[in-house]
Each structure stands twice: as C-alpha cells, then as structure tokens.
Amino acid sequence: MCQSFSFFCHMGVAKQIRRATTPSTMEQAPTRPLTVLGIETSCDETAAAVLRLEASGPEILGEVIASQFDDHAAYGGVVPEIAARAHADACDGVVRETLKQAGVSLSEIDGFAATSGPGLIGGVMVGMMTAKALATATGKPFIGVNHLEGHALSPRLSETVSFPYLLLLVSGGHCQFIQVRGLGDYKRLGSTIDDAVGEAFDKTAKVLGLGFPGGPAVERCARTGDPKAIPLPRPLLDRPGLDMSFAGLKTAVLREAQSRELNTQSLADICASFQQAVCDVLVEKSRRAMAILRADIPSGQSPAFVIAGGVGANTALRSSLTALCEDEGFSFHAPPLKWCTDNGAMIAYAGALRLSQGDVSDLALSARPRWPLDEEAAATAPVFGGGKRGAKA
Ligand code: KG4
Ligand code: ZN
User: Fold this and answer.
1) Nearest-5° angle of CA 391, CA 118, CA 38?
2) Nearest listed ligand to the Cα of residue 308
3) 390 lies in a domain?
C-alpha cells in the first residue's frame, strides 16, 4: 500500500446506456436483506464500503476511504497515470480493511458493485477488475455502477427522500440539474457548457497558490474575505434557461490575481468574491429549476431539493441553497460531508438497489470514460461535442 496515502476510516453509521429494469417513482423494497460491497476508484479516492439494504433502508457496516491528495499535490490536480497506479496499489488493502471493519466475510456478500464510469479510465478499470474478480471467485453477481447515479442517490444513505426530486450535482467533473424520477430514470434539466464548478474551485486555488484539492482550500481562505470586494462575472445569468458556464469566471479570477499584490487579505477577498459568484449563479439557476420540477410533483408530496457531489461540501453554498429552499417551499437535502465527495457507500447503495431489482452486469462490461445519467438528452441535445469535454456531459 502506498505510504503517502492518508486513511479516513468510518465504521458503523456511518456509469453503459441502461435504464433500471423498472424505472419508476414507486419505491421497491428488497424482498430479503442484501449485503453489497461497493468499490469507488474513478478519480483520486480509493474507497470501499459494505452496505446492508433492508426494507427499512440502507445501513453502512464498514467503510474505508484512501485519498491520494499527497500524490497529486505537487501537480495542482489529479494526474491520471499516478491515480491509476495508486488505485492499483491501494485497492486490495482498502477492500480487505472494509470487510474487516464490517465484520463480514466474502461469502456473506450478495453482490460486488464497482464504479464503471464516468471517470479516469485507468482507475475505473482497477475497481471493476477487483469487483469482477471477487464476483467470479465467490460466484456472486457483479454490478457496474454509474458514478453519477451513486452521487444522485447519496442523500438517501442517511435520510428518506422520495422520488421525484431535484438534484444539483456539483463535482470536479460535473455540474448539472437532474430530475431524479426513480432508480435509473433521470432527466437532465441543465448543465455547464464548459468547466465543472469543482474544476473552477481547483483552478482558482491553483492560480492563487492555495494547494490541492482546491475546493476546501478556497473555502477556508474565503472565510476572512469580503465577498463584495472584487467584481467578478455571473456567467449566463443574463440568459434564460438552466445552462451554466464557469470557464469565464475562472479566467476573471486569473486576471484579478495578476492585477494586484497577493497578500493574506487580497487572497481572502478573491476567494470570497469567487465563492459568492458561484453561489449567486447556482442559487438563481436552482430557483429556475425548482419552477420546472414543481409542475411534476404528485399532489400531496412536498418538493425536495438535493445537492450532491464534492462541491456540495461547501458550507457557503449549502447555506445559500438552504435559504433558497425555505423561500421556495422545498425541503433541502445533502449527504453528510464524507458522502459528498467520492466514497464507496454511494456505490454500494446504488449497486444494492440495482441488485434488489435483479439488474446485474455481465462480466464483459467495459469501463466507460463517459456515461451521462440522461442518455437520451446526451444523444439528442449534447451540451458538449466529443473529445475531452464530452466526459462531462
Ligand atoms: O465528487 P468529487 O469528490 O469527485 C468528482 O466526482 O469529481 O468532487 C471533487 C471536487 C473537487 O473539485 C473539489 O475541489 C471539490 O469537489 N470540493 C469542494 C469542497 N470540497 C471538495 N469545492 C468547494 N468547497 C468544498 N468544501
Ligand atoms: Zn464524484
């Protein structure tokens, strides 16, 4: 196992074109308790969890997250080759430790789930190969999970949120509004047309020399800054619709940084102003998305708003969106911080739900660098063309 890995272990409490077998807003309870091992290796976290799914809901029995921050810090971002090698070094140990924490033997696992995309392909392959090998050795099913589906369902790990709900998915690779209508049934309402919002946080941190990962560093630095100090753009707010753009904001931060002396106060002011611009854009776009979702909520059900993905850990964003929800009559839901960023629990959960519906994968399933949640929208109305950007669609 890589020496430079830092381990955060939690115990007890805690991506192919495919529709669920029965996409439906009706909840289907599993007919018997299912115990699933989930593996996540799509970016810079090697993570695993053992989850038990019962009619009453999911319970995490054991969970390990090994972060590669130290391996990538010198580069200011995730280096795919380094990530793949680090996953290969860590994966077996993380799985072993997770099973030990859970107090569960391999023979007690009903299915092995792994992120199968979207993500950095080398890492995705490591997790999939591990899950496939365990499935083969034990004669149990393998379930290839869409990483984005894991994030989309993650708030349900800790609380009941009924379908349909409005999801704002904000991570290092994605920024989308999705109407979550049921397991495997997703409608894209809007998306970034260039950079993901987490990417904008990471690049801002890099430009300001704040280190990696950027999001938490920018948030920390912003605490003592004035959010009105630096005028920054609110891209696409002047246009109707739900699409977003963060590339221009990132460039504006670079310009502002180059035009002044950087000291503790100016850094804090830039970070606070950047974070405020992100919050303003996401709050206004969320308000518009809520108007769309409200029309589809069954009568008698109160509308729910969910934020998920790494940027969902941002406290300023959470409180801005909580206030918006109060204004708009939506309930606000966000996973606990450890399940906002990449984790094995969300993969085990999505895998267990699919297993409970008999929706398992072939061992020949390939890793997918791109795997949009709403395949139809991605095919008929792509926000990105092909190439590097396509992975974010
Ligand atoms: O979901 P995630 O762990 O991985 C992806 O699927 O991309 O998200 C990682 C992203 C990074 O860009 C990271 O800087 C950002 O989430 N992030 C944050 C915070 N914590 C993590 N951004 C803003 N504020 C935070 N507190
Ligand atoms: Zn993620």
Assistant:
1) 165
2) 1
3) no
Tell me the pLDDT of the chain (393 aa) as tens digits.
Answer: 333 333 333 332 233 333 333 444 556 778 889 999 999 999 999 999 999 999 999 999 999 999 988 888 888 788 999 999 999 999 999 999 999 999 999 999 999 999 999 999 999 999 999 999 999 999 999 999 999 999 999 999 999 999 999 999 999 999 999 999 999 999 999 999 999 999 999 999 999 999 888 999 999 999 999 999 999 999 999 999 999 999 999 999 999 999 999 999 999 999 999 999 999 999 999 999 999 999 888 888 999 999 999 999 999 999 999 999 999 999 999 999 999 999 999 999 999 999 999 999 999 999 999 999 998 888 887 775 444 444 343
Q: How far does the centroid of ligand 1 lie from the alpha carbon of residue 203, in Å?
A: 12
Tell me: do 318 and 365 sit in the same domain: no
Residue 46 shares a structural domain with residue 67: yes
CA-nearest residue, atom 23 of ligand 1: 215
Domain membership of residue 386 (yes or no) is no
Question: Which of 208, 311, 314, 343 is the pocket-test mutation for ligand 1 (most atoms within 8 Å of CB)?
Answer: 311
Burial 100-113 (b: 16+ CB within 10 A, else e): ebbebeeeebbbbb
**Do 289 and 370 share a domain, yes or no?**
no
| Share of the chain residues as helix, strand and coil, in percent rounded to the nearest 5 | 45, 20, 35
Q: How far apart are CA 354 and CA 116, in angstroms?
A: 14
How far is the centre of ligand 1, averaged over its atoms, from the C-alpha of 171 (Å)? 5
Is 172 close to ligand 1, i.e. is its CB under 6 Å away?
A: yes
Q: Domain with 186 in it: what CATH number?
A: 3.30.420.40
Domain of residue 189 covers 161-334
> Is 38 found in the same domain as 91?
yes
Picking from 280, 299, 334, the residue at the C-terminal end of a domain is 334
The SS3 of residue 253 is: helix
DSSP 8-state class, residue 192: B
Same domain as 204, residue 81: no
